[in-house]
Amino acid sequence: MKNLFSMKEKEPVNCIAEVAAARDTLYEDRVNADVARLEKSASVIFKRLDKSVKILEAIEASVDAKITHLERLLQMADAVSSSDCGQNRRFEVLALRAKGLGIDEIATILGIQHGEIELILNLNR
Question: Which of 4, 15, 32, 66 has the greatest number of C-beta atoms within 10 Å?
Protein backbone atom coordinates (compact mmCIF):
# COMPACT_ATOMS: atom_id res chain seq x y z
CA MET A 1 0.00 0.00 0.00
CA LYS A 2 2.87 2.30 0.69
CA ASN A 3 3.90 2.07 -2.97
CA LEU A 4 0.40 3.03 -4.11
CA PHE A 5 0.35 6.10 -1.88
CA SER A 6 3.78 7.11 -3.01
CA MET A 7 2.67 6.68 -6.63
CA LYS A 8 -0.32 8.96 -6.04
CA GLU A 9 1.96 11.74 -4.98
CA LYS A 10 4.03 11.52 -8.19
CA GLU A 11 3.11 12.72 -11.60
CA PRO A 12 1.03 10.30 -13.72
CA VAL A 13 3.71 9.99 -16.43
CA ASN A 14 6.30 8.91 -13.85
CA CYS A 15 3.85 6.42 -12.34
CA ILE A 16 3.16 4.88 -15.73
CA ALA A 17 6.88 4.59 -16.41
CA GLU A 18 7.48 2.94 -13.04
CA VAL A 19 4.60 0.50 -13.54
CA ALA A 20 5.89 -0.32 -17.02
CA ALA A 21 9.42 -0.85 -15.67
CA ALA A 22 8.09 -3.08 -12.87
CA ARG A 23 6.02 -5.04 -15.40
CA ASP A 24 9.06 -5.45 -17.66
CA THR A 25 11.18 -6.63 -14.74
CA LEU A 26 8.49 -9.14 -13.73
CA TYR A 27 8.21 -10.33 -17.33
CA GLU A 28 12.00 -10.75 -17.59
CA ASP A 29 12.05 -12.69 -14.32
CA ARG A 30 9.37 -15.04 -15.62
CA VAL A 31 11.15 -15.47 -18.95
CA ASN A 32 14.44 -16.17 -17.14
CA ALA A 33 12.73 -18.73 -14.92
CA ASP A 34 11.14 -20.39 -17.97
CA VAL A 35 14.50 -20.47 -19.76
CA ALA A 36 16.15 -22.00 -16.69
CA ARG A 37 13.46 -24.72 -16.54
CA LEU A 38 13.87 -25.44 -20.26
CA GLU A 39 17.65 -25.65 -19.93
CA LYS A 40 17.28 -28.07 -17.03
CA SER A 41 14.83 -30.21 -19.03
CA ALA A 42 17.14 -30.15 -22.06
CA SER A 43 20.04 -31.25 -19.87
CA VAL A 44 18.05 -34.24 -18.58
CA ILE A 45 17.01 -35.16 -22.12
CA PHE A 46 20.59 -34.97 -23.43
CA LYS A 47 21.83 -37.16 -20.56
CA ARG A 48 19.17 -39.76 -21.42
CA LEU A 49 20.11 -39.59 -25.10
CA ASP A 50 23.79 -40.07 -24.27
CA LYS A 51 22.94 -43.11 -22.15
CA SER A 52 20.77 -44.52 -24.96
CA VAL A 53 23.56 -43.97 -27.49
CA LYS A 54 26.02 -45.85 -25.26
CA ILE A 55 23.57 -48.74 -24.90
CA LEU A 56 23.03 -48.86 -28.67
CA GLU A 57 26.80 -48.82 -29.27
CA ALA A 58 27.20 -51.77 -26.89
CA ILE A 59 24.43 -53.64 -28.71
CA GLU A 60 26.07 -52.87 -32.05
CA ALA A 61 29.41 -54.21 -30.81
CA SER A 62 27.70 -57.37 -29.57
CA VAL A 63 25.95 -57.88 -32.90
CA ASP A 64 29.24 -57.35 -34.77
CA ALA A 65 30.93 -59.97 -32.59
CA LYS A 66 28.11 -62.43 -33.26
CA ILE A 67 28.30 -61.80 -37.01
CA THR A 68 32.04 -62.47 -36.92
CA HIS A 69 31.46 -65.68 -34.97
CA LEU A 70 28.78 -66.84 -37.41
CA GLU A 71 31.01 -66.09 -40.38
CA ARG A 72 33.75 -68.17 -38.79
CA LEU A 73 31.28 -71.02 -38.21
CA LEU A 74 30.17 -70.83 -41.84
CA GLN A 75 33.78 -71.02 -42.99
CA MET A 76 34.29 -74.04 -40.76
CA ALA A 77 31.15 -75.63 -42.15
CA ASP A 78 32.36 -75.07 -45.69
CA ALA A 79 35.73 -76.57 -44.81
CA VAL A 80 34.12 -79.60 -43.17
CA SER A 81 31.64 -80.24 -45.93
CA SER A 82 34.07 -79.69 -48.84
CA SER A 83 36.91 -82.00 -47.82
CA ASP A 84 37.09 -85.78 -47.79
CA CYS A 85 38.83 -85.61 -44.45
CA GLY A 86 35.87 -83.61 -43.25
CA GLN A 87 33.50 -86.33 -44.45
CA ASN A 88 35.43 -88.97 -42.52
CA ARG A 89 35.52 -86.76 -39.46
CA ARG A 90 31.79 -86.15 -39.83
CA PHE A 91 31.09 -89.88 -39.86
CA GLU A 92 33.40 -90.43 -36.89
CA VAL A 93 31.63 -87.70 -34.89
CA LEU A 94 28.19 -89.06 -35.78
CA ALA A 95 29.23 -92.63 -34.96
CA LEU A 96 30.62 -91.63 -31.57
CA ARG A 97 27.51 -89.58 -30.82
CA ALA A 98 25.32 -92.54 -31.78
CA LYS A 99 27.21 -94.56 -29.19
CA GLY A 100 26.09 -92.04 -26.60
CA LEU A 101 29.29 -90.09 -26.14
CA GLY A 102 29.14 -86.42 -25.21
CA ILE A 103 30.80 -83.53 -26.99
CA ASP A 104 33.69 -83.40 -24.51
CA GLU A 105 34.42 -87.10 -24.96
CA ILE A 106 34.25 -86.89 -28.75
CA ALA A 107 36.59 -83.88 -28.73
CA THR A 108 39.11 -85.77 -26.62
CA ILE A 109 38.99 -88.93 -28.74
CA LEU A 110 39.22 -87.18 -32.12
CA GLY A 111 41.41 -84.29 -31.01
CA ILE A 112 39.15 -81.62 -32.47
CA GLN A 113 37.52 -78.56 -30.98
CA HIS A 114 34.12 -78.51 -29.30
CA GLY A 115 32.80 -75.93 -31.76
CA GLU A 116 33.56 -78.15 -34.74
CA ILE A 117 31.78 -81.08 -33.11
CA GLU A 118 28.77 -78.92 -32.31
CA LEU A 119 28.74 -77.67 -35.89
CA ILE A 120 28.81 -81.18 -37.32
CA LEU A 121 26.04 -82.29 -34.98
CA ASN A 122 23.93 -79.23 -35.75
CA LEU A 123 24.36 -79.68 -39.50
CA ASN A 124 23.06 -83.24 -39.21
CA ARG A 125 19.84 -82.48 -37.39
Answer: 15
103-112 contacts, C-beta under 8 A, 24 or more apart: none
Q: How far is CA 84 from CA 24, 40, 96, 110, in A?
A: 90, 68, 18, 16
Q: 111 — alpha (psi -120 to 50), left (phi > 0) or beta?
A: left
DSSP 102: -
Query: Alpha-carbon distance 31 to 36, whole Å?
Result: 9
What is the model's pLDDT at position 74? 82
- pLDDT, tens digit, for every residue of 94-113? 988 999 989 999 988 888 89
- Provide the residue ranges of all domains of the chain, joining segments of one domain with +: 1-63
Task: Please state the pTM of the whole predicted model.
Answer: 0.42
Close Cβ partners of 94 (under 8 Å, ≥ 6 residues apart): 120, 121, 124
∠ Cα 21 25 31 (to 5°): 140
